[in-house]
Design brief:
Blueprint: H1 7-20, E1 22-30, E2 34-35, E3 40-41, E4 45-57, E5 73-77, E6 90-92, E7 98-107, E8 115-121
Antiparallel strand pairs: 1-4, 1-6, 2-3, 4-5, 5-8, 6-7, 7-8
C-alpha cells in the first residue's frame, strides 16, 4: 500500500486561499520575565507571521451563545504558518480588524499541516 502525499493538498489549500482569500497576520505575544536580582521585567516578545486566509461567518444554526457567539468568525489559514495558532493569539485581517483566537484546530493528517481552522472573536 502506498502512502498518500499530503503535500499536494496542502499546496492546493495554500494556492486557493492565496487566490481567493486575503492576507492575514497572526501574532503571538510572549510575556517577558521577571529578574529578581535586578527587580526589572523584560519586554514582551511579539512573534508574527503573515499568511493567506479566508474569513467566513458562522451559520446561525452553529451559534449557541456559549462556545460560538454572535459575531465570531471562522478563519481558514494556509498551512505555511510559522507556528500553529492557539487561543490568545491575535489575527489581523486585511482591513486592519484585530480578532482574538478563541480556538484553533489544525487539520494534520499524518503529521503534516494541511489547513488551520480558527475561531476568532472581535
Amino acid at each position: 500500500m502506498t502512502k498518500f502525499d499530503y503535500a499536494r493538498p496542502a499546496a492546493t489549500a495554500k494556492r486557493l486561499l492565496t487566490r481567493f482569500g486575503q492576507v492575514v497576520t497572526v501574532k503571538r505575544v510572549t510575556p517577558g520575565g521577571y529578574d529578581p536580582a535586578t527587580g526589572a521585567t523584560t519586554a514582551d516578545v511579539t512573534n508574527g507571521y503573515s499568511c493567506a486566509g479566508a474569513v467566513m461567518n458562522y451559520a446561525s444554526r452553529d451559534i449557541d451563545g456559549t462556545l460560538i457567539q454572535r459575531g465570531d468568525v471562522n478563519v481558514l489559514l494556509a498551512p505555511d504558518a510559522a507556528f500553529e495558532p492557539k487561543p490568545g493569539d491575535t489575527v489581523t485581517l486585511a482591513d486592519t480588524t484585530v480578532l482574538t483566537v478563541i480556538s484553533a484546530m489544525p487539520t494534520k493528517p499524518a503529521g503534516l499541516s494541511v489547513l488551520f481552522e480558527v475561531q476568532a472573536r472581535g
